Amino acid sequence: MASKQQARYAVGRCLMLWSSNDVTQQGSRPKTKLGITKYSIVTNSTDSVTLRLMTEHDLAMLYEWLNRSHIVEWWGGEEARPTLADVQEQYLPSVLAQESVTPYIAMLNGEPIGYAQSYVALGSGDGWWEEETDPGVRGIDQSLANASQLGKGLGTKLVRALVELLFNDPEVTRIQTDPSPSNLRAIRCYENAGFERQGTVTTPDGPAVYMVQTRQAFER
């Protein structure tokens, strides 16, 4: 089904690397384009994680990723497994753009390793962030595609790359995410990437750990 919150849920709570839960399960929402087609962050290791804008040609690959067990676990369970038609409808970049969500594919050494997305928190709708008044706040979600790559620091690299990309836009004031309280891997991932816990909040998907990184903290 193609609702903002479903896409958000899928991505955000799915992966420790996906956004909130390692790849947490959060859905999709597009963000205004920054005119950036690729962004890379060099880490202390020889590996670097890059982000490129997702295209329609990536949807079949994304469908396969979203049906992997380590992602399904955080995306509503077996009943919520998306069909190819679901993914083609919900994650088409032009559709996500209508919801102020920008989708990315994470790359490592030239190979796709995960999905990420950013969205404008203000006006998210469907019960999400209804008290938000700052147009500069961005939410993020992301997940690693391969279970074998979990727990190796790639999620943190991915999140850091996404954070740096977003703060490259001077209009962005704060970045937030909302992993499930039980997704300890995602929470650690976000903390390692500079996010701070602000407490537990109630979302349309249930309780979540509200985590933020401000521009001021990022630029210290």
UniProtKB/TrEMBL annotation:
Record CDD domains: NAT_SF
Single GO term (MF): aminoglycoside 6'-N-acetyltransferase activity
Gene3D superfamilies, per the entry: 3.40.630.30
Catalytic EC class: transferase
Claim: Transit peptide is one of the keywords in the record: no
Keyword terms: Acyltransferase, Antibiotic resistance, Transferase
Reaction catalysed by this enzyme: kanamycin B + acetyl-CoA = N(6')-acetylkanamycin B + CoA + H(+)
Xref: Pfam families: Acetyltransf_8
E.C. number: 2.3.1.82
Domain (N-acetyltransferase): residue spans on this chain: 49-216
InterPro entries assigned to the protein according to its UniProt record, in alphabetical order: Acyl_CoA_acyltransferase (IPR016181), GNAT_dom (IPR000182), N6_acetyl_AAC6 (IPR030971)
UniProt record, GO biological process: response to antibiotic
Highest taxon, organism lineage: Bacteria
Quaternary structure and partners: Homodimer.
Protein name (record): Aminoglycoside N(6')-acetyltransferase type 1
